[in-house]
Amino acid sequence: MTRLAGKVAIVTGAAAGIGAAIAERLVAEGAQVLLTDMNEEAGQVLAQRLGQRFLRADMALTADREALFDDVASNWGRLDILVNNAGITHAAELDDLTEEGFDRVMAVNVKAATFATQAAARLMRKGGSIINLSSVNALLAIPNQIAYAVSKGAIRQLTNVTAVSLAPRGIRVNAIGPGTIMTEMGKSVMAGEEQRRLILSRTPLGRVGDPEEIASIAAFLASDDASYITGQTIYADGGRLGLNYTMPG
């Protein structure tokens, strides 16, 4: 399948997990992908395996973002796809939450995506697709993930606002809101039988998702198959958001 043949893409947070799966799927669909992450070792290994380029960047830093988009401009002169996947969590109850912790989450999860979108739009000369990674936690609450949940709620609205702002330029902006996905973080959450039972009790499909399932949605949203879709968040959560009770264990 080569729906993205000739397209140029950036995937942030691409060294592992969902970001790595998205980068791999975009390449499989024909795109040229610049991978970026703070984990240079893992990012370089993946980029070499995919035959693509890697550039280390902390997306919360203006200088790193500028270097990333300058690289794209110098090497390709345009951009067609941006996947704002880089993100962090910060576990803290309200009484223990610090400004430093809150600010870091917002910088990586929200500010970085906002200004990456701005920079990408300037390079999307003939339209394009921007894909943000949100979460079911844009709508659901976890008491000790205040900063993360707030940031994902902000991503939901960032998607709406920029979709409207960029529509006249032919740039579509959408988001994906995963539920529990079997990344390294997901595996740690599912480490014990009790934790596994609790996760599955809130998931009607009775299993967690795979990174490749999120990647397939990203590839769709990046392609012309989604040419009339903008401002939407697709929640890939195994039915969790529609559940008003727990499933039998």
UniProtKB/TrEMBL annotation:
RNA-binding among keywords: no
PROSITE patterns cross-referenced by the UniProt entry: ADH_SHORT
Pfam families according to UniProt: adh_short_C2
Top-level division of the source organism's lineage: Bacteria
Keyword Oxidoreductase listed: yes
InterPro entries assigned: KR_dom (IPR057326), NAD(P)-bd_dom_sf (IPR036291), Sc_DH/Rdtase_CS (IPR020904), SDR_fam (IPR002347)
Record key words, sorted: Oxidoreductase
Matching SUPFAM superfamilies: NAD(P)-binding Rossmann-fold domains
Domain Ketoreductase: 7-179
Family note: Belongs to the short-chain dehydrogenases/reductases (SDR) family.
Protein name: SDR family oxidoreductase
